[in-house]
Amino acid sequence: MTNPIYIDQKEILKHYKEPDKHTHKGIQGHALIIGGSYGKIGAVSLSSKACLKTGCGLVSVFIPKCGYTILQTAIPEVMVLTDIQEEIISNITFEITPQAIGIGPGLGQAVETQNALYEFLKRNTIPLVIDADALNIISNNKKLLALVKPKTVITPHPKELERLIGKWDSEEEKMSRTISLSKQYDVIIVMKGAPTRIIDGETVYENTTGNAALATAGTGDVLTGMISSLLAQSYEPVSAAILGVYLHGLTADIALPETGYQSFIASDVIANIGKAFLSLEKQE
Ligand SMILES: NC(=O)C1=CN([C@@H]2O[C@H](COP(=O)(O)OP(=O)(O)OC[C@H]3O[C@@H](n4cnc5c(N)ncnc54)[C@H](O)[C@@H]3O)[C@@H](O)[C@H]2O)[C@@H](O)CC1
Ligand SMILES: Nc1ncnc2c1ncn2[C@@H]1O[C@H](COP(=O)(O)OP(=O)(O)O)[C@@H](O)[C@H]1O
Ligand SMILES: [Mg+2]
């Protein structure tokens, strides 16, 4: 394996694009987050709020019906599309044209949802982030990987990665199998952990921000929203992954003196995205 490229302040400025003063919400990117199931609507709430707070102009969600009032109440800025089913997603259809889609947070793995994911992957040509249960469904039916378009970003945590590539005996084996998967399907793999690494074929990036405060429910769902937002804003997929992971980690570094490790929660990531962006502006 070649040496990783460390994602630090200097490296991130090669990827970061400053906002255009004359932009408006119609050209600032529209992202769609698909996920949720009964009891896990919170995952989509977190993901879609993080998506908005990372700068895209419009955010929609596609969720089961039971999440409608929850989403509209929790985040009035987000637009809500619903499945025909009450508690699960069974048929992913929408008439909007988002510039990026994030799929998986809280999705569940019901048979109807597995079929819906299959039909969606067959048709979809929009830049995509795949996380959580969408990855788990793919792990159970690896043929689905062949439907994933080039430069799709996938964001497995270590257990999800193991479901995708099988158990490993050493760090070297884990890296070489992940690189092989990235090359075989031309996907960008965000290997979440401490540290998070981003794999784009033979190129390995290693993040330098973040801390153990992030070891709490929903922080991965938030990351999916952040990367989807950057993709919708026309960042190249690898830059969206790198910048999303860097800013996500930075929120925990910024918040730590106030929250300590114990009381930091996924909503604190979202609350600190603004400060993380501002620290990029100050570095010039
Ligand atoms: N508020 C909500 O609605 C939440 C919904 N969530 C959703 O719940 C579903 C299940 O996701 P989960 O990730 O909880 O379940 P999984 O079964 O995919 O992963 C949990 C397993 O992975 C292991 N694991 C996780 N991180 C690890 C690490 N860094 N190193 C080693 N092992 C690790 C755990 O020990 C556990 O065995 C997903 O759809 C997810 O999006 C979760 O994100 C939690 C919050
Ligand atoms: N000890 C740690 N140090 C740094 N980052 C961590 C640590 N533990 C977890 N994280 C980060 O928190 C996030 C957890 O994602 P995930 O396991 O998918 O959470 P969830 O599914 O609950 O949203 C990942 O971005 C991961 O890198
Ligand atoms: Mg997760």
UniProtKB/TrEMBL annotation:
Keywords: ATP-binding, Kinase, Lyase, NAD, NADP, Nucleotide-binding, Transferase
Protein name: ADP-dependent (S)-NAD(P)H-hydrate dehydratase
Chain positions recorded as AMP binding sites: K192, G193, A194, P195, T196, G220
YjeF C-terminal domain: residues covered: 8-280
Domain of life: Bacteria
Keyword set includes Calcium: no
EC number: 4.2.1.136
Residues that hold (6S)-NADPHX according to the record: A43, G106, H157, D221
InterPro entries on file: Carbohydrate_kinase_pred_CS, CARKD, Ribokinase-like
Organism name: Flavobacterium glaciei
Cofactor(s) annotated in UniProt: Mg(2+)
Record Gene3D superfamilies: 3.40.1190.20
Key word Amino-acid biosynthesis present: no
